[in-house]
Amino acid sequence: MGRSSHITLDDIAKQLNVSKVTVSKALRGHPDISKETTLLIKKTVSEMGYTPNYMARNLSSQRSNTIGVVVPKIAHFFFSSLIESIYDTAFHNNYEIILTVSQENSEREVKHIESLLAMRVDGLIVSITQQTRDHAIFEKVKKQGIPLTFVDRVLDIPGTSSITVDDRGGSFMAVEHALRLGYRKIAHLAGYPEINIGLRRYRGFEDAMKMHDLPINPDWVIYGGFDEEAGYRGFMKLFNSGNMPEFIFAVTYPVALGVYAAVEESGLKIPDDIDIMCFGNSDVNRFISPSLSCVNQPTDKLGKAAVELTIDHIKNIDTFEPQQIEIPTELILRQTCSVNSKHAYN
Amino acid sequence: MGRSSHITLDDIAKQLNVSKVTVSKALRGHPDISKETTLLIKKTVSEMGYTPNYMARNLSSQRSNTIGVVVPKIAHFFFSSLIESIYDTAFHNNYEIILTVSQENSEREVKHIESLLAMRVDGLIVSITQQTRDHAIFEKVKKQGIPLTFVDRVLDIPGTSSITVDDRGGSFMAVEHALRLGYRKIAHLAGYPEINIGLRRYRGFEDAMKMHDLPINPDWVIYGGFDEEAGYRGFMKLFNSGNMPEFIFAVTYPVALGVYAAVEESGLKIPDDIDIMCFGNSDVNRFISPSLSCVNQPTDKLGKAAVELTIDHIKNIDTFEPQQIEIPTELILRQTCSVNSKHAYN
DNA sequence: GTGAAAGCGCTAACAG
DNA sequence: CTGTTAGCGCTTTCAC
Q1: To the nearest whole angstrom, how far is the Cα of A210 from the nearest Cα of chain B?
Q2: Residue A99 near residue A69, CB atoms below 8 Å
Q3: What pTM does this model have?
Q4: CB A98 within 8 A of CB A69
């Protein structure tokens, strides 16, 4: 197979007439070894171009200094920012990240988690797919004693931690804002109710409506997914129903983008004919026209919390108490759903 | 440390009164083992919740079935799509991916590659940072005999493969199109010339200008980076110079988005006052207003080619001939730079 | 301060 | 078809 015979600890030990233990210790800065020896060893190591073998190291030490991550998607602003934050935090804590992508496919999710377990990651950070229903794999993770932290799309499993944004509160703020502007006919493109973010964002919508004593029109709560397609179809359904709302609260920004496309096709205008706001910021919300107001999720905090919590769990495996952390959201107001909208304060 | 004592091959071998070799072989579908035994073993394995230890497996077999990937960024449409494609292709070829993110920082890039080498990946796919100048680490990779494939942002290193899009041809097409519409005063926000995509896209721009016997105004070729910030500052520089072009060719879509923001601030209008087109599609190009025409890079083909080429190299380590593959681009025409633009055919 | 011995969990060669 | 014997390259006791 043309195996490239790597340089090993032994090679450099022989070169220096010391034992490989000495080299190993020196490389890890073990206090056993004298300064001069350590220096000499490090010099030789870099001269000979030695690269330690993590496989061997991990096998021997029974730990990997690695956190496995499973996300449903990455070509999506929320997830790519989240992942960037995860990598960043891990990097600063000297942990490696092994990222896998389930592509919203729960079978693939299971396979990836098995791989990660097989790689003997020290901990796991998971954001589940839209179709994940079966908990079995997560029970397996728990049984193997691997710290597990869910992010954003979470499952309620005892012994695991979770980091979520305050979906319900964020939704509430958004719909509240629309109501204060004077809108009464509010529709919600709601994703899927089985997914926790779908349910929780719906609840926030519901809270706001209740607080204003407004009934919820079931025809105006439309499920169908979290992507552009869902937004497009959702709006078309509203449009064709002959009973249009004044305002749409979209469960994600891709759903909102889908609505933009559909509205354009329908010949209507945002925000005059139909106003909109969504949950989730992205790099483009400010560049689309009209610029899109939204509920912002601080992905940097999410990622940081997820990694730090997982590391905490790893390092204090016997005493760690799982935590459910909720990160607050904030409203970002732009051209849609603003005081300049047609219905404002009427 | 509260180590979770995992179940090993031996455990299940003892349970079944066979040797661990038998179990190992059965699990890998080795033809040595009879069907019944294999079935029995697999049953026991899943009953006992055994997860093979890849560390041990890889150490022993001297291969990892893993490809290391280094990208400069992921919260960017081009890279996140590329990565998705890489994961997808690897998945279908039964390879694992270990992704690392250099954050456009070349020191971090080096560290990540060292980690990947230490993990004994079978091959490496790299898209370099904007500041990568030093080749040393890549020479090290070569020296260790690890197949190396560059994607998009490439380095010319003998013995390595590269997958790029036809930057020059794509740029040429874009600028050509603008010229055909009647534009003559063409500016180019050009990224950095040291980065190959910067240089190549500039060349395409140059080709088109030359073909139409138009001189290139050096004041209208502005370097400064590949992000929104660069686009914003680039446009402001043009705007404040008092000598505005009619058309801007932006080296990336974030640069174009930066221009959109700056144009809005300046009080001008796209495409009437200034028209624009960019290299690189994204999920938002069609949703911004006016929708943004661009040169599309087929990220799915890029990722697929990169992975397949790398695997090919891994499997035929002695005979493999490095390849430089160039993937063609296509023009996507939307509202900017269209026949409806002010200058069209005048 | 340094090193010898043992073993992490698995696979590869070879015997039976 | 099944098992025995040797490692893979490193870290971990525990002597010296």
Answers
A1: 34
A2: yes
A3: 0.84
A4: yes
The full set of domain ranges for chain B reads 4-52, 64-164+298-326, 167-297
**Class of CATH domain B64-164+298-326:** alpha beta
**Which of the residues B80, B95, B144, B278 would you substitute to probe the A interface, choosing the one with the greatest number of A C-beta atoms within 10 Å?**
B80
Q: Which two tokens stand for residue B185?
A: 């005063």
Report d(CA A138, CA B211) in Å as an integer.
62
Q: β-strand B294-296 against B330-332: which pairing, if any?
A: antiparallel
Q: How much is the average pLDDT of B155-174? A: 96
What does the pLDDT read at residue A346?
Answer: 38
Tell me whether residues B4 and A318 touch, CB distance under 8 A.
no
Measured distance CA(A57)–CA(A60) in Å, rounded: 5
Q: Is A340 exposed, middle or buried (0-12, 13-18, 19+ CB in 10 A)?
A: exposed
Dist. CA B328–CA B340, nearest whole Å: 27
Banded pLDDT at B1 (limits 50, 70, 90): very low
pLDDT in tens, A115-144: 999 999 999 999 999 888 899 999 999 999
Find tokens 């073990």 and name the residue.
Answer: A30
Do A4-52 and A64-164+298-326 fold alike per CATH? no
How big is chain A by its Cα radius of gyration, in Å? 26
- CA distance to A34, A191, A259, A310, A317, per residue, from A229 (Å): 65, 11, 9, 35, 43
N residues, chain A:
346
Q: List the single residue in A with minimal CA-CA distance to B117.
A: A51
Which parts of chain A sit beneath pLDDT 50? 1-4, 343-346
Place of tokens 């069907």: B35
For residue B167, the tally of other CB atoms under 10 A from its CB is 24
To the nearest whole Å, the CA of B155 is away from the closest chain A CA by 22
Q: What is the CA radius of gyration of chain B?
A: 26
- The class level of CATH for B4-52 reads mainly alpha
Hey, which CATH number is domain A167-297, 3.30.70.330, 3.40.50.300, 3.30.450.40, 3.40.50.2300? 3.40.50.2300
- Count H helices, E strands: chain A? 12, 12
Round to the nearest angstrom and report the end-to-end CA distance of chain A.
Answer: 77
From B62, B53, B301, select the one nearest B164 (Cα to Cα): B301
